[in-house]
Amino acid sequence: MFKKKSIFTFLQAQVAAFLGGITDYGLMILLTEVFKLHFTFSILISGTVGAIINFSINRFWVFKNQSDYSSHINSQLFKFALVVLGSISLKSSGTLIFQKFFQIDYRIGRLITDLFVSYGFNYPLIKYWVFRVNKKPDVIESN
């Protein structure tokens, strides 16, 4: 059975992903349609901007995992950057595959790809690796 806190955390993470994602998607279209960059390059740039927004919201609101230790944030940033690199690679490749092999418009292919990448790749890694909280084991007192 799911705990209420887990469901709430999942929903908060979806809000963070949505805000980062809508920024990412809008910027991708702007860079592709107005500035005429190939969509794979637009995804690289827009994905980076969206990731910064997503990281900030996840760190300070969703997982509230913001210790004052600079090594802790450096570790989180490094892990998050690896997730973002994987995510951007998957999104670019998936969008390209939908466009080249299935003749699906890159905007639609990107939305389809995002669904799989967000739920199957980003969320699990962000929750269980980037912002994982190491809980101290309960100490059992003996008499």
Automatic annotation (TrEMBL):
GO terms for biological process: polysaccharide biosynthetic process. It holds the Pfam family GtrA_DPMS_TM. It is a multi-pass membrane protein. Residues 18-131 form the GtrA/DPMS transmembrane domain. One of its GO terms (cellular component) is membrane. It is found in: Membrane. The chain crosses the membrane at residues 7-31, 37-57, 77-102, 108-126. InterPro entries: GtrA_DPMS_TM. This is GtrA family protein.
